[in-house]
Amino acid sequence: MSGDADGDLSLRGWAVPDGLEELHDLFERARSAHPEVEGAAFMMLETAVIEIAGNVVEHGRPSGRVQWSFELRVLPEVLEGVLSDDGQEYEGDLSTVMPDLMSESGRGLALAWAALDSLDYAREGDHNVWTMRRDR
């Protein structure tokens, strides 16, 4: 994990369950470094990041061999998180519709959408890039 004087924090590693803990730690560092940012903004962005990162851990192929990077930017009007991974291209539904109550999966992106002000996905070369923004 690294950081810079502008308030950006980043990490690189494997998309495995321990990586989710590293993301939580990064957000804890960000909260400490930026007490001027409302805690709810960090919490909502963190929720979205963990949901999408959890999908990469669970569904990324080849399993256990996907590498990712994450950068958190604390900007004057927005918190921005960018999660990039080298797994297979995401071909699922980017819908904001919450699945049926009896459904056992499919809530991650809907929860992420609910927590964010914007969510963008792009395939850039051989990487999936998720850009998540939460207004401050």
How is this structure best described in words?
Helix content is 34%, strand content 29%. Strands 1-2-3-4-6-5 form a six-stranded antiparallel β-sheet, covered by helices on one side. Strand 3 and strand 4 form a beta hairpin. The protein has three helices and six strands, in the order ββααββαββ. The protein starts with a strand and ends with a strand. By secondary structure, the chain is an alpha+beta fold. The chain has one domain: Histidine kinase-like ATPase, C-terminal domain (Heat Shock Protein 90, 2-Layer Sandwich), CATH 3.30.565.10. The relative contact order is 0.19.
Topology:
Blueprint: E1 2-3, E2 9-14, H1 17-33, H2 39-59, E3 67-74, E4 78-85, H3 108-115, E5 118-124, E6 127-135
Antiparallel strand pairs: 1-2, 2-3, 3-4, 4-6, 5-6
Helix pairs in contact: 1-2, 2-3
Short structural description:
The protein is an alpha+beta fold and 136 residues long. The protein has one domain: Heat Shock Protein 90, CATH 3.30.565.10.
H/E order of the elements? EEHHEEHEE
Report the end-to-end length measured between terminal Cα atoms.
24 Å
* CATH classification class: Alpha Beta
Largest sheet: 6 strands, antiparallel
Average pLDDT works out at 88
Poorly predicted runs are none
Keywords for this entry:
136 residues; alpha+beta; Heat Shock Protein 90; 6-stranded antiparallel β-sheet; 3 helices; 6 strands; globular
